[in-house]
Amino acid sequence: MTEDDDRARELLPLSLSLHQLDEAHRRVRNMIARRFELAGTELTALLVIAGTPGLSAGAIGQDLGITTGATTAVIDRLEDSGHVLRAPNPLDRRGVEVHLTPAGEDTVRDIATSYSTLLDAADLSDTWQSIVPKLDAITATLNAAVVATRSTRRSEGRHALPDTPPEG
Fold first, then answer.
1. Alpha-carbon distance 35 to 43, whole Å?
2. Which residues span the membrane (predicted)?
């Protein structure tokens, strides 16, 4: 058995835990979305827009991992429901920015309250400050691996994950 095999075996519980977290969060996100009469993707889009106001539709779609057409449909539904508005991009007259409306801000605040209520049961109040940077680091590493894999697939036609972690 190699050092890599030992490391992989050692990280298996983390991999399983991340999978379980991902699945639990997907279910909770959909439950919260239904409460606000939104689809899961619409809820996620609201959170993305709240986190970075003024994003272009393209940037929102890229963050959500959906097509241009699907992005337009999500933004249309959020605009029709009064959660967001499109505004001209002051730096590029051809583009638009997407912003939350006051109703959208209220919904995002209510969504955050729903998460807070749910997560209070986990009793993590004394560890949030240490957990969030670690989760952010894992997220950044996983996202970088996806980008690296896409680059490798385009340039070499391969479908495997990179053998070494991405630098960054």
1. 11
2. none
Res 119: pLDDT: 83
The helix (H) or strand (E) run that includes residue 94 is strand 92-100
Q: What is the 3-state secondary structure (H, E, C) of 2-63?
A: CHHHHHHHHHHHHHHHHHHHHHHHHHHHHHHHHHCCCCHHHHHHHHHHHHCCCECHHHHHHH
H/E element, 97: strand 92-100
Cα 118-12-130 angle, rounded to 5 deg: 45
Domain identity same for 163 and 83: no
Whether residue 98 sits in one domain with residue 17: yes
Res 136 pLDDT > 70: yes
85 and 59 co-located in one domain:
yes
Domain that holds residue 155: 123-168
Whole-model pTM: value is 0.75
The residue count for the chain: 168
Query: What is the pLDDT averaged over residues 37-52?
Result: 95
